[in-house]
Amino acid sequence: MTLKHIDLCAEQKNPPPPKTMANGKPANIVKTARGKVIVRDPKIVTGIGIHQTACVFGPSNDINRRNRRALNVPCHALAFRDGTFVTAFPLPWYVYHGNALNEFTYGLECEGKYPGLPDDPTTPKREDEQSTWGGGATPLDDLAIETFRAALKYLYEEGLKLGSPLQYVWAHRQSNGQKPSDPGYGIWKHVVLDYAVAQLGLKTQPEKVWRDGKTVPPQWDPKGVGKY
User: Fold this and answer.
1) CA dist., res. 143 & res. 121, Å (int)
2) At the topology level of CATH, where does 4-197 sit?
3) Is the distance from CB of 151 to CB of 79 less than 8 angstroms?
4) Using CA atoms, how far apart are residues 6 and 1, in angstroms rounded to an integer?
5) Residue 172: CB partners within 8 Å, gap ≥ 6?
């Protein structure tokens, strides 16, 4: 299985232009000071925050154009489902990817729309009531899993090179209670537990929450606590 890493960090503007939200309003995707992106001390970065994009990027005849969408997605690595992952923000940059996780994590986005629970792939009216955010669930196939793992491994190894004392993987739901299916039970099992923990030696903290976040539930993790 051949996986591909594309580094677009040299093309990223400092600061990046604001992202246009669904309501048409602009939103900054990085934290700035004096007109430049804040560069974090790598030694304060202790973990990786893992997300699902809650969408599948539309097909394009121009794959380069699709990959360049990563320049406007706030995360340190964006892993597509087809064997490609893109880095478009330097790891030390303070990127708004995970609410309270922003300051001390590297952010990984995994392309797809994955259910929060294995027995409830239905479309919710509200994400905090059911399990999949908008539309039908995306199949989590072997190629997607391997791509997500490769992107996580890249963040882990490059972070260590920078001097980050990386120990943990946290789910976005732990810092944002409005996103309980983020990243979803399948990613938690196949990317976090079966790979980041079992092979890279990282740890989880299922009981840990920030602000309105939710714990990692037992349906995701044998050490999970609380309710979905």
Assistant:
1) 21
2) Lysozyme-like (3.40.80)
3) yes
4) 17
5) 49, 50, 51, 98, 99, 101, 179, 182, 183
Structure tokens at 145: 């899993």
Long-range contacts of 61-68 (CB under 8 A, 24+ apart): 67/6, 67/8, 68/8, 68/11
- Tell me which of 54-58, 109-113, 174-178 is least confident: 54-58
Phi, psi torsion values for 144, nearest 5 degrees: -60, -45
Buried b / exposed e along 182-212 (16+ C-beta atoms within 10 A): bbbbbbbbbbbbebbbeebebebbbeebeee
Q: Where are the domains of the chain?
A: 4-197
Q: Which is nearest to 172 in space by CA: 107, 218, 87, 83?
A: 107
The answer to whether residues 66 and 60 touch, using CB atoms and an 8 Å cutoff, is yes
Pairing mode of beta strands 47-52, 105-110: parallel
Question: What's the distance, CA 115 to chain centroid?
Answer: 15
pLDDT in tens, 49-77: 999 999 898 776 788 889 999 999 999 99
pTM over 0.85: yes
pLDDT digits (tens, 9 = 90+) for 122-168: 544 444 445 565 567 899 999 999 999 999 999 999 999 999 999 99
Structure tokens at 176: 């944002």
